[in-house]
Write a structure and sequence with these properties.
Largest sheet: 6 strands, mixed
Helix content: 40-55%
Oligomer: single chain
Structural class: alpha+beta
Radius of gyration: 34 Å
Shape: elongated
Strand order of the largest sheet: 1-11-3-6-2-4
Length: about 575
């Protein structure tokens, strides 16, 4: 990057004339202490970080909301002021440096209004203050703590009314008056101020003149503003440069920037709405989930846009943001129903390997005629079964790895085609049509079945895989857990190994899917307290059917373990092939 530099006075002359703020910027948040530290840093010749500007072409100007810099800041108020630009207006957007430039604008041109400390209400409203510099304060007298980076050495402060012009130790100069000076007049101005100060000692006079000259140089002479100007037509490229180059202040992510764009264009508080929804979905349902703002923003795009749901700034135009806001209640309801439904299946942050799968289910609920109907379909047993089977297949086959946006787009089109003719979740159509289009395999072919069998007890998907083998939909409580049918302790006897069951084969199969099942907590306790052979013989036919277990009791002898595995694999395979 090649940087240019200019004076503060020169940049201030362009703010709100040709330099403006883009809609990705956050509101101004600095307080008076931060502003005075900025001016103090300038007076100490400290760098104040570089700035990122973007020369905007006509097309990008028309697509974006553009805002003015705040001159007279009023704490606690939303002062974002949009501007209407004429065609062919040449403007520059400040992508990085809003807080610093606004602070300079406030200190040198405008004002800062806030309430007095420890006073929550003021009958006259916030107090309007301007920035002043004590020209008699000696910066060298503040050298005792060189290790404190926040220590200020110059006498900047904000005042409601002009303080007493001078005393024996202070002479307050309104900082904005320095802009009235130029090369020809600033010495006359300094001389006039010295006369106003009256009798000063030689040391005081040196400090007075040095401070005034330093302030003039910093604002009007020194090229204190170092900046890079981007000319690319790509808004997203500029945003990426901003994120990577933003070394100072609070770190921003892409979602931070997009949230700022939403906040500026919503009639309500978009930031609170989205943050509250994230908190609600993660912490206040029956199970704990793990969603973030990116997921909420991407889901909103999926619901409201026909194509291109990628999380980039060009998708967050004012038109699209208004569309999201208009549909926000329906988006929230669809997401809540979806997470309640999958949590009912026992799927949550512990075993949900792709949150994008929930996006597809939510889009289905979003497309139903109304909320009452969606709630009814969410508890319909047959519909629950369809959703659960599709979700298990999608997660186990990993269909959202790689080009997830393409997969979601395909699912959207299938749901759009089916939702009008049937209110049930189109599980079979999703599997059939998405598989026929080549890239996805949702059906359980021989390869998928082989992978299914190899899922082990310790894998995150173990619970999801097991639950697809059962007709029961309600796995939400913690009473159901994965267990090994044949316990490893049965195979410690050397005699059993001598019968042809090798230790390696036992270790291979003991934790694989054919030896696993889901049991309630009470069933697990009963199994652990009884001898295995007695326990298995005490089970009824419903138990064997429910768990897809062979009914030949001879297969439950340890030496027949491999024969059991073969029979269980056959029953699991038949179950998987019958799902769709």
């Amino acid at each position: 990057m090649s940087y240019d530099s200019t004076t503060i006075a020169n940049v201030l002359g362009k703010l709100n004339k040709s330099y403006f703020l883009p809609d990705i910027q956050r509101p101004f948040v600095w307080d008076t202490d931060q502003i005075t530290r900025l001016f103090d840093s300038l007076m100490q010749n400290y760098p104040i970080s570089s700035f990122l500007f973007w020369d905007v072409n006509e097309k990008n100007t028309e697509e974006r909301e553009i805002y003015k810099f705040i001159i007279d800041f009023r704490c606690g108020e939303n002062q974002d002021e949009k501007i209407d630009l004429l065609k062919n207006d040449n403007i520059t957007l400040v992508m990085d440096g809003q807080q610093r430039l606004t602070s300079l604008m406030i200190g040198l041109i405008g004002s800062y209004s806030d309430r007095p400390k420890n006073q929550r209400k003021n009958p006259n409203g916030p107090i309007k203050k301007a920035l002043y510099l004590d020209l008699l304060k000696d910066p060298s007298a503040e050298m005792e703590d060189d290790d404190n980076p926040k220590q200020t050495r110059y006498g900047f402060d904000f005042f409601e009314t002009p303080p007493s012009r001078y005393s024996s130790t202070k002479f307050w100069f309104k900082v904005s008056d320095i802009l009235d000076c130029n090369k020809d007049t600033y010495r006359k101005r300094r001389h006039a101020l010295v006369e106003q100060a009256g009798l000063l000692s030689k040391e005081q006079l040196d400090v007075f003149e040095t401070n005034f000259e330093k302030l003039y140089d910093v604002i009007c002479q020194d090229k204190s503003i170092s900046y890079y100007t981007e000319t690319s037509p790509s808004y997203d490229k500029v945003v990426e440069i901003f994120i990577r180059a933003n070394d100072g202040g609070t770190k921003l992510s892409k979602s931070d920037i997009l949230m700022s764009m939403l906040t500026k264009n919503w009639t309500t508080n978009a930031r609170d709405e989205i943050n509250n929804l994230v908190l609600y979905l993660n912490s206040e349902l029956e199970s704990k989930n793990d969603v973030n703002r990116d997921f909420i923003l991407r889901t909103s795009l999926v619901f409201c846009l026909k194509t291109d749901f990628s999380l980039k700034t060009q998708n967050f135009t004012q038109k699209n943001i208004k569309l999201i806001e208009a549909n926000w209640l329906n988006i929230k309801n669809a997401l809540e129903l979806s997470f309640r439904t999958v949590n009912f299946f026992g799927i949550d942050k512990r075993n949900l390997t792709s949150v994008n799968a929930i996006m597809v289910i939510a889009y289905y609920f979003y497309g139903l005629p109304n909320l009452d109907h969606a709630k009814k379909m969410a508890i319909d047993p047959e519909n629950q079964k369809l959703i659960r089977q599709w979700l298990g297949s999608a997660l186990l086959n990993g269909i959202f790895t790689g080009q997830a946006a393409n997969t979601i787009g395909m699912a959207k089109r299938v749901i759009d085609d089916e939702i009008g003719s049937s209110n049930y979740f189109p599980a079979k159509s999703l599997v059939t049509k998405m598989t026929l289009r080549g890239r996805l395999v949702l059906e359980y072919d021989n390869v998928a079945i082989g992978k299914f069998m190899d899922i082990s007890y310790s894998k995150k998907l173990g619970f999801v895989a097991l639950s697809t083998l059962y007709d029961n939909n309600n796995w939400a409580n913690d009473h159901y857990q994965k267990v090994s049918l044949f316990p490893k302790k049965l195979f410690d006897n050397e005699k059993l190994l001598s019968l042809g069951v090798s230790e390696n084969e036992i270790d291979l199969h003991i934790s694989r899917m054919p030896n696993l099942l889901l049991l309630s907590r009470d069933e697990i306790i009963e199994k652990e307290e009884m001898d295995f052979s007695i326990w298995i013989q005490s089970r009824n036919d419903n138990f064997f059917d429910q768990h897809l277990l062979p009914k030949d009791m001879a297969l439950y002898r340890p030496e027949k373990f491999l024969g059991f595995i073969k029979h269980r694999e056959e029953r699991i395979e038949n179950r998987l092939k019958s799902l769709f």
